[in-house]
Please model this.
Amino acid sequence: MPSFAQTHSRVTSYFLLQTENDLRPMLMHAARWKRPVLIVPALADEFTLAENLPVFQNIVRELAGAQYLAHIIFGLDRATYDDVKCCLAILKEAGLTNFVIQWNDGPAVSLVYKELEEAGFDLSQRGKGRNVFMGFGVALALGATCVGLLDADIRTFKRRQLDRLFFPVLLHNYPFCKAFYARWNNERMFGRVKRLLLDPLLLALKRKFSESSEEKMLRLVDYLLSFKYQLSGEVVLDSWLLKKMRYSLDWGVEIFTLIEVWRKASQVAQVEFTSRGFDHKHQRVSPEDPTTGLHRMSLDIINNLLHALIVEEGLGVGEEFFRDLSMTYSSIADETIKKYSDMAEFNLLQYDRDQEEKMVREVLSKAILQTGDRLSAPEHTAEKMLRLTSGFKEFEPFVKNGLQSAILEVEKKLKRQNLAVRHLPSWERILWKLPEMGKRIVDALEEDKNRFR
Model:
């Protein structure tokens, strides 16, 4: 018997007890007076490279059966004119008629980005975050009542999975729904960042906040732990919530979205996407390079989480906080790895315990300390440097030339950087400043439609 326990007062969990139920008739009935819209952000190579094409084609074929969707927005990044033509051919061959192309590198949408930049909204960081952000703007301009997100690299996608994701928002009026699933492929377990970083880190924070009676922080951490797959990219948001939320442009987007939902919605849902294995592209660990792969992803996630707790929620931390947190995390991560090793053996799955322990030791625990240096270092480092330079005669010539003044100036600069808002404002704020932006977006879409007609 599958578990169907409801363990959090603010999160309703939809468990998949009947796998053959068809929810589409109820969704189509609800869509008669609502306008659900789906966003599919995609890089051009997800449909131009031969090895990726079958995955994309399967997703498009499955989406052709989701007649309850008013629009499906394909946000194309790094795509040439010919790439867009290629995508259009795939969509039409599958029988899709309700699609919208958001060509991010095309002249029309590029002008929209330029207008936003000129109005003071920094969209210079390219990537999936920016693509999705513009997709939200497109969906709102098209009059969406709720908006879903679906990655373009899901190898095991079926339409019924999407039906389940939209059901709580479209039928039961939840403002937010997030998918959960098991990341495995019948041979081994995946989802390393969730298993080895996020869950042990949240448990470490919970232990620290329980000891220090930080009730506010404890409630937020418990809320994040109640989600069975916090890092899933498949979500649906009601448009009123979507308008009010700020956005992250880096790999921390999923955890930051959950924190924003915590702040702005009282009741939310999570739904079991599939009871079978779930598979999409996997990132390299890249232990030596913090700018790519799981290393970069981990840093972004930790930074978003701790920045939200310390800077935005007001958590007071001392110099020893991050050192203690890293040590507690490492201990919990080691215990967690043993549990996954035991479970893998029970299910006759491959499991490289040495590699997972190495990832925790060489990448993830160090990433916590790196983030701590960035968030807390300015005042503590400056204080130490001032004491050091005042206590030794060797520094006197440099002090006379302004060394300590330079230290204080750098400290102020770093504090300003750490306290600055690192996320894009809500679309509500953007539309307040640029009330014609919705019309500009529609005009850009129409221009591209005529360009490819």
